[in-house]
Hints:
The chain has a single domain (5-122), classed as 2-Layer Sandwich (Transcription Regulator spoIIAA). It has 5 helices and 5 strands. Helix 2 (66-74) packs across helix 4 (91-102). The N and C termini lie far apart (41 Å). It is 37% helix and 29% strand. The protein is globular. A 5-stranded mixed beta sheet has the order 1-2-3-4-5, with helices on both faces.
Amino acid sequence: MEEKFKYIFDETTGILYKYYYGPITLGDIYSSWDEAISKNLIPKETKGFILDYRKANFDIDVKDSPGIADYYKNHLDVFGNYKIAIITQSPKDVVIPMIVEEKDDGYSSQPFYTVKAAIKWILGES
């Protein structure tokens, strides 16, 4: 089975990158984070997250997308007070991160089209 996720931690910026590949379901998102948490793949030095969906697409019904925000809220020990940048380039895929952003509570998320803009936002650069 082809891997749908890859994690890379940038020690220079403190940003954890999570790359997604292929069609992604809610179950994929939950199970991949559960695995990252259980295997300690999220370094203590993490300052924020960039979730890169440019080589993936959401296989999620729009009405189910608030479940992603619920997952982050239920894991504030991991995501609390962090910024989560979501990179998409397909107009139809930007809808999901926009809905999640509206439900943010205890963390911040925002959709982006470029990694450069996402890094600036996470690091608080204007």
